């Protein structure tokens, strides 16, 4: 029986009428993405055609999902909204705060001891406000959502950038900051710029060593980390129907790495099989009644160039396995070509670790394909040259995989089975074998491979591949190994070749689990008390931000001019800092410590204009705050790429940064800045980035006239007294300018609910 089946029935009941009306107002056949978007308009029945990439639109998502690291700040904000219960079905999943070190049992026990304060807080807030709670060890949020909550044709938002994983089950699922989630929890509309549409036509069929993961690795190489910004990627074609549901989830998951708003697939037989296998036949039965509306119109897929803003075509029969990296998920290289590339770039050929799992590739099918390679190593007497780590996606997956002997195969190879949690994928890995300045290489089936991402070590070169390819390369111990053509020397001195992987889409005996880790909230949580200790280092009740006065936008100082890639990992690191995600002041001590200073190419080392001394970014910013001086951060392209973590906006806001001026933004981060009452601006002329000097002072000349579609004028005063005047563009509409004037979107919510 599905969760929230009545809500799902309501979505389907209105779909035919709204889709027909949308088709009428748009005046042409519709893509799947458009059908879902128009069916979830806040105002109900469609009355106008929205301009892609231009019009801001209010939507009514069906549900919300939050992971523990971001849920803390989201729920701390929701507690200020003055509501007794969340307005839409909402869940919290404890998956980020469990460090991988010794193995599942010991790691989970340690997490429950060290983070019990946070887990207790999240559990109590969930009980008080009617939120479903998934305990530590229950699984990774996106796999749990796919198995329990995702449904074809639905719309959900989640406080994690990989919420998009649910597109594998035909949803429009979008990663957001906590403030966006709070809007919807509080019963308000959720605003999004109507996305552009990228169509990816898949033909042929996967075979051999090529996996679903290779589809998105190929797409990432084509579109780069910013090529999908502001767009929904919709996959279609005969090749799409040949993919499993969890394989589709993998592809949608890594859509976050190309900056896409989300990715999705039309409802098909593989989704129906998955729904029935996960005890949701009731959803499949309802979806079948509106099946024609749960995919794009036939005319769209017959002539995609007429209906999408961009079309990419990939023949799965010709697609080769890829490894992407290091340091960026869009550096795509077909397997077998990495040897020469690695030598040219001085990347270590020896592979230290192979890591399988994460929200991207931890399904039953993923584990069977990787286990088939692991079993071959045992049968062919091959001793792995690399260490193995496995993160099952959920307790249901783990329990079923253990029952069917899959985990034992990995353990027979010496693998460590970690907790059903994110672990190394988000820097929660206590790795002891790669310290100091030694360059090293790891391969994993995760989604991101930014510098320091997995283990905090800038010398770790991480490459992304499918689970079966990770298994093969880890067994060989070499980055340049090509299992399709190369042989390996076994323990008896024989040259042996690995056979193609074999996968099982769904468990033949069905899924099974004893305790899936779910805790339902009580019907009435009004008597539940949420406690936050005044002396807590982990949790801190929020104080509303004060509006930034126009007078404070004069005489501003430069905090840092970031050079090159500046992701949310650079702005607000994860790893050990996750423990402070519920304490804004404490976590602000990691603010921009990973950003590279353009003037000295160092991290966490900037000039304090008050005394001319150099120091850490947070320390310097706190000095400016004491002096009552607002500051500005300057950045390059795709600033804020990566996670949805709103801490990357809240920390600078808390410390006194008033504006972020960059060449271009990643979507979620730009929205997060707006929500927190800051200015997120882009250079009207990108070359003006080069005008910014280390000792500059900034005056926002016309901030009093801040208005939609009107660039702001900034006077830059250099240390020698000379001046430059530049224009800065923005995408603020009237409502977002109101957030800025009130100090934050949350302040506006409280004002409206007063």
TrEMBL record:
GO terms for molecular function: aconitate hydratase activity. Keywords: Iron, Iron-sulfur, Lyase, Metal-binding, Transit peptide, Tricarboxylic acid cycle. Gene3D superfamilies: Aconitase, Domain 2, Aconitase, domain 3, Aconitase, domain 4. It holds the Pfam family Aconitase. Its cofactor is [4Fe-4S] cluster. Residues 34-477 form the Aconitase/3-isopropylmalate dehydratase large subunit alpha/beta/alpha domain. Residues 556-686 form the Aconitase A/isopropylmalate dehydratase small subunit swivel domain. Its EC number is 4.2.1.3. It comes from the Bacteria. It catalyses: citrate = D-threo-isocitrate. Pathway: Carbohydrate metabolism; tricarboxylic acid cycle; isocitrate from oxaloacetate: step 2/2. It is an enzyme of class 4 (lyase). PANTHER family: ACONITATE HYDRATASE B (PTHR43160), ACONITATE HYDRATASE, MITOCHONDRIAL (PTHR43160:SF3). Belongs to the aconitase/IPM isomerase family. This is Aconitate hydratase A. It comes from Jejudonia soesokkakensis.
